[in-house]
Structure formats: C-alpha cells, structure tokens
Amino acid sequence: MQTGDGLLVRLNPVAGGIAAKSLIGLGESALRHGNGIMEVTARGSLQIRGLTAGSARLLAAEVDALGIAVRSGVPVEIGPLAGIDPKEIADPRPLAERIRTAIEEAGLTERLGPKVSVIVDGGGQLSLDAVTADVRLKAVRTGEDVRWDVSVAGDARSARPLSTVNADAARDIAVAALRMVAEKGREAHTRDLTERQLNSLASWHSVAPLSVLPDISPSGGENGSSRAGSPLSALEIGESHGDKTISPLEGEMSGRTERGASRKPIGLFPLAGDTFTLGIGLPFGSMPAQPLIDLANQAASLDATEIRLAPGRALLFLGLSPSACTSLRDTADTLGFVTSAADRRTRIAACPGTPACASGRIATRAIAETIAKQSADLLDTSLTLHISGCAKGCAHPGTAALTVVGDENGAGLVVDGTAKALPAAYRPGYDAARGVAGIAAAIHDARHQGETAAACLARLGAAGIAELYRRN
C-alpha cells in the first residue's frame, strides 16, 4: 500500500502469534528495509512503514526465512486469545477456518473488495464486540449447547441481527451474505444488501451444501464467472494482484481507532494454570523498531512462549509467570510503551505526521504526547481526540469529538466531524497542543459534577470550542 512515507506492509500471521525471536527479526528487517517505524493497528495487524518496491521484496524474503506464514484473502478474524482463554464460550478457530475454506471454494476471494471482513468471536476476556465487520458470528450458550449469533454490517452494538444457529448454518449464512455482496461489486458491503436479501439470510437455517444456497441477487442469479483466488505469498507483500492489493483492509493505517476491542488489551489476563498473558500497548499504535526489539529480547529472556497481536494496538505476551509479567511490564514502561489501560494516550488517535509521513503538515505524535500529559481532563472515556497530519484522516476515518488537522493554514480544529471537514478555527501547527489545553481548561471550569467531557463539550457548543482553541 502506498502511503505518504513510502510503501506500507501489513502482516497477519496465520498462526495468530509469533515467537519473540521472530518479532526481533521483523524489527531488524524494518530497520534495514523501511524507515524503522512499526505499528499494531486497531484490528490487530502488524505494519512496517517506509519501504520501497525493492526493499519490500527483500523484507518479504526475510519474512519467509523467519518462517512466518502470513494470511491473505478475505479476513476472517478471531480474538487474540482464541483457543487459550479459559473464559471463552467456544473456540472460534475451527469455524473460522471452515469459513475461510468455504470462501475460497465459492470463488469469492477475488470478487470481494479489500475492506470486506468476517468476525468469528468465541467470547472471553477480550471479545471483538467493538470491531466492525460485514459479517459477525458470536458464540452464545443455549442451555448445554453452543450456538452462534449471526449479524451483519457493524460492531456488536450497531450490526443487524439475523439469527442464532448452529456452526454449520452460521458458516452457510456467512458465505451466502458474502456471495450477495460480491454480486453488487467490489465496492459493496453487507450494508448495501436489500431488505429482502437480509430477510432471506435471517430465515436460512438449513445446512444445505453451499452450492445450493438461496438465490437472492437483484438480477435473480450470480453474474459472471467466479474463480477461486490463489493466496498471495509473502513475496507479493506491498504489490498489487490485479486490482486487489495484498492489504485486506487498505484504509486502515497507523493507530486507527475505528472500533477497537471493547476491553483494552492492556494489563494481566489469566490463562490456564498459573500462567498469564500480559498486554502491552503501542502509543498511538506505533513504535520505533528498536524499543520493540528490546522488549521482545526481554520477553524471550523471561520465557514468553508466544507474542500475539491484539485489536486495540497492543501486543499480548503469553506463558508468563506473575513475577515475569511484573518484570516485563517495568521494562515496557521504561521503553515508553502503554502499560495501563487508563493511560490517556489510548484516547488519542494520531497518524505518523511529520517528519515520518510526506503527506503530514503537523507533528502529530509530538502534539498528541503533549496533550496526553497536559490536558488529562479532556481525555475521559466519553470521547476520542483525533490528531491528523492531513485531511486524509488515516488514523481515524470516522467522526471524532475533536479533530486537529494539518493543512496549508496550520493546525485546524474540527468539532464533531472528520479530518476531511472544514476546520472551524486555526492556530500554528507547533502551538496546537496549547489550543487544546485551552479547551481542557474550560471543561475543567465548566464541568458539572458527574458530567462527561463529551457532554460538557456539547454544552459549550461548536462555536465556543472553536473560539477557545483559537484564542488561547
């Protein structure tokens, strides 16, 4: 994927996690072939930035040499503790694999757009309730049995429920929905399905073979020929395959906060026996490669068995004793990682900005760090603050309560909008954090007891907020 600082490579390990030595190897590759910036996205993908077409090939060869198999095709996502969480309702991995196979056999891989995705959530300590997807399958208990809630087009709160069925029917409904999406073209999603199509999916309870799934396309049938897409190898990272890039979620870039995991994957999570997993976050989803290498070296010395990527821009270190968790957390804290779910940096979405990205107009990460330290009153759980280097809004494409965006006029402020909206006020880019501090001070003074920051902002009004930003 081409970005403002060169090509970006996104990796999703087939195994779900990697060994500490593999993360060390990836960090060293990022230093050799990229600009040394590594990221974990809100959906739990690993990204390496600043590559060229030539260096991406070299990195791909090193990924192969490390023995890291990477997933391609339509993303069928599972939770970061899938199969090992003692609190999960069901292991989602077998059903997810059956859906992946069915998608390939139905010839849908090349016919669906790069942002189409499926979630299979077994529940547990780190659910995927806040992650958006075209098709959602969530394990539920019905007496002694496990069944699957099937819904489409959204996160757990906004998606449209279809039915609660067994695993076979859940697979069939998921693939039938994707066939309907494919019929509408590569720009389509399940949100584009008609009411008639959704009603038909909701009534689909049989376990008939996929070849006889109901025909509910607008034209009365599937148009065109379908062919199974061949998986892209690691050697094709950063390239295009026809009109489909290797990135399955091409709009998702650094630190994207578009519906991350509902519970922050930061802190201690008990596993079987006396072992734990420790979740450690990357500030704004990004970190230079060397601190990641140092953290992985420490994890290896503490006998961590595996490192998993977690939705919410974090890494999970598995197989640690309580004392090892404490030691690794202290190391992470010293290196500048996020070690507490209450860390104010988790409330800020910030792209790389200048100098990392050629498209950036402001130093987003420096501004974000300053705001996190100086404007804590603003950063409660009621809102997200977005710092965008340019109007593309890569870090948070959706609406945010406050967005600071760089353009030729400096650092603009958008109230309750996206980075693409016209700013209501400006100040110099180097001074943006002071403008936000003025808003935070006003909230501190005007807030009613028990009132959230978002509610207080609403009372102050967009014009008043813009004036606070401009004059301070």
List keywords for this structure.
single chain; 472 residues; alpha+beta; Sulfite Reductase Hemoprotein, domain 2; Sulfite Reductase Hemoprotein, domain 1; five-stranded antiparallel sheet; 11 helices; 22 strands
Could you describe the 3D structure shown?
The protein is α+β, with helices and mostly antiparallel strands and 472 residues long. 29% of the residues lie in helices and 23% in strands. It has eleven helices and 22 strands. β18 (348-350), α8 and β19 form a beta-alpha-beta unit. α1 packs antiparallel against α2 and α9 packs across α11 (462-471). It is globular, with a radius of gyration of 22 Å.
List the helices and strands and how they pair.
Layout: E1 2-3, E2 6-11, E3 17-18, H1 20-33, E4 37-40, E5 46-51, H2 53-65, E6 76-77, H3 93-105, E7 118-121, E8 133-142, E9 145-154, E10 160-165, H4 167-184, H5 195-202, E11 240-241, E12 244-245, E13 267-270, E14 276-281, E15 286-288, H6 289-301, E16 306-310, E17 314-320, H7 322-335, E18 348-350, H8 364-374, E19 385-388, E20 400-407, E21 410-417, E22 425-427, H9 432-446, H10 453-460, H11 462-471
Parallel strand pairs: 6-7, 7-8, 18-19, 19-20
Antiparallel strand pairs: 1-2, 2-5, 3-16, 4-5, 4-15, 8-9, 9-10, 11-12, 13-14, 14-17, 16-17, 20-21, 21-22
